[in-house]
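Researcher: Sequence of Glutathione S-transferase follows. Predict its structure.
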Amino acid sequence: MAGEGEGVKLLGTVVSPFAVRVRMALHLKGVSYEDLEQDLFDKGELLLASNPVHKKVPVLIHAGRPVCESLAIVEYVDEVWAGAASLLPADPYDRAVARFWAAYVDDKVVHAMLAILRATTKEERAERLDAALAAVKPLEDAFDACSGGKAFFAGDSVGYLDVALGCHLFWFEALREMFGVTVVDAGRTPRLAAWAGRFLETETAKKAASPIESIVEYAGKLRAIWAAMAAAAK
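Model: Prediction complete. Tokens:
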């Protein structure tokens, strides 16, 4: 596989959707790498030294040099291992559009997803689910525009925007299991829901998937920490 012997390491966690995003990109490019699981509740020296600004995963270490932030890492992987099929569109305008929607996912959709997790009552969770559904809705039109009527955002095969959004589908499923909520609703966004079903059946998604039970366990720890912080602030 491409990348063998080049000293590629990924600092991540099995539950991080952003680390999953990078794993997907590496898989699509056929890059071999060493997956180094990190403890986010007790961060190690390598992570702190590799990402001293944000102190979070994922970090890609290539030939001894760290690259931080998942979208930047995906673009780095796309450029360094250019021999495989490109993840970003070839057309400059299409690339700009893909980057816009990827940033939208991380800004609006992830925020809305975490807001559901932070909710402490059913009523509050219902309100935040409505906000999440509203955040997801524009991606239905984005899919139509980017896919050109084909199976994925990138067309016939998985690309940059597919992994940018697809990495979060496992957390959506964890929220459904925990609270019975559906973030990508087939009734409101049928084409996006159909895309999600296709994406989860790809080898790329299956290779990088986060175990739902691990996400649920981690999410429970986060909720306990947030509850303790709220109690301490009273």
